[in-house]
Design goal:
With 393 residues, the protein is α+β, with helices and mostly antiparallel strands. It has a four-stranded mixed sheet with strand order 1-4-5-8. A hairpin with a 2-residue loop joins strand 2 and strand 3. The chain is globular.
């Protein structure tokens, strides 16, 4: 079994053969993937060595100390955190070989075509249709709240392939080429002024059956792998102490004593403790991932992430007083990533409003935690055995 010493040796060999100071960034990333040091817990030949997931930190520390480039994970987070684990679990060998390397190196950006205007919180009610024509599927429908669609080459897509069965049973999972004819991306301007999200219209888009993930009609089960990983990626990201939203407000508190009040002090202490508890809980959740796939516990982390971000950003605006109402830039932009800590308090306050919607609404996640973590009785679902075509819409 590959151990820490072996990984240290392999990393040293990579650095010797491809010195970061003189090697092109793209070439270094490809060499790292081919050496099995991209994600060490993946199988050999797919960027890994079949090593324990915890040993990734050994590689990352050695490469960081040597000044090696990373793959800009924030820019390609959907591919890394959602598409890759789903392809690894359900993809064919051909799909794994085709998609995982350019996904990890960042040569190909991914987006997620799940939510629809009439199927957000109730995702299984989606109406985008995929109809089989020989060796292709013809897809028609509309998706919404699609991050990075304006940058993406590929998308993970779920569509209805059988309207005559209950809603969860008639869904199939596909990989969609965003450059194909019939794919139209339109910006959605947000309360922040940016168009970070998009609408995507699919008109007679032809997807080869070879780009189907999983069995026909089994798309809901495949999608659960994506969604569980998404919630861990959003709510369980690795942070240092005072990382994330709590950092800027703590810094302001220390540097601006004239803004302090007793009430704000008590509220900040409470949120600081909660943020630290959430950070440590996220670390424990990541350690649990070393022994299997993410489970519903990620929903709890996502819930905490959304609530804390909104409460902390609200406190920061209140602490700053009039200055907290200032906003630096309202020009319509289409950013490549969300930068919570690189902008001012007003941006953080407005952007945090979306945290309780994206990646699963807080209301839906509360149900998941209640039913699948705590084991409480499920809510009545009168549509569970009704064919999708017969549902009221």
């Amino acid at each position: 079994m590959t151990d820490a010493a072996e990984l240290t040796h392999r990393t040293a060999e990579l650095l010797a053969a491809h010195p970061p100071a003189t090697t092109d960034r793209a070439d270094f990333l490809k060499a790292r993937f081919d050496a099995g040091l991209a994600w060490v817990h993946y199988p050999e030949g797919l960027g890994g060595l079949g090593a324990p997931r915890t040993l990734q930190a050994v590689v990352d520390a050695e490469l960081e100390a040597a000044g090696a480039p990373d793959n800009d994970p924030r820019r390609i987070g959907i591919g890394l955190g959602m598409a890759a684990p789903t392809i690894l679990r359900y993809g064919t060998e051909e799909q794994k070989q085709r998609f995982l390397r350019p996904l990890w190196t960042g040569d190909e950006v991914w987006c997620q075509l799940f939510s629809e205007p009439g199927a957000g919180s109730d995702l299984a009610a989606l109406g985008t249709r995929a109809v089989r024509e020989d060796e292709h599927w013809v897809v028609n429908g509309q998706k919404v709240w699609t991050s990075s669609a304006h940058l993406a080459r590929w998308a993970i897509l779920i569509a209805r392939t059988d309207p005559d069965v209950p809603k969860h049973a008639g869904i199939t999972y596909f990989i969609c080429d965003m450059t194909d004819p019939g794919v139209e991306v339109r910006p959605l301007r947000q309360i922040t002024g940016e168009a970070e999200f998009n609408e995507v219209f699919l008109t007679d888009v032809r997807i080869p059956d070879s780009r189907r993930l999983g069995e026909v009609g089994d798309g809901w089960r495949v999608a659960q792998t994506t969604l569980n990983n998404e919630r861990v990626a959003i709510g369980g990201m690795r942070l240092p102490r005072e990382g994330g939203m709590i950092g800027p407000v703590s810094k302001t508190w220390r540097e601006r004593p004239e803004l302090r009040t007793h009430d704000l002090h008590q509220r900040l202490l409470k949120l600081w403790v909660e943020a630290e508890v959430a950070r440590l809980t996220g670390e424990r959740l990541r350690q649990q991932l070393t022994v299997g796939q993410p489970g519903p516990e990620g929903a709890g982390m996502k819930l905490a992430f959304a609530r804390l971000n909104q409460e902390i950003s609200g406190l920061e605006v209140e602490l700053l007083g009039e200055a907290g109402l200032l906003y630096d830039e309202w020009t319509m932009r289409r950013p490549e990533l969300v930068d919570f800590t690189g902008r001012e308090a007003g941006y953080r306050y407005l952007r945090a409003k979306g945290n309780s919607i994206e990646g699963g609404t807080s209301e839906v996640l509360l149900n998941i935690v209640a039913e699948r973590v705590l084991g409480l009785p499920a809510e009545p679902r009168t549509d569970k055995d009704v064919a999708w075509k017969d549902l009221a819409r």
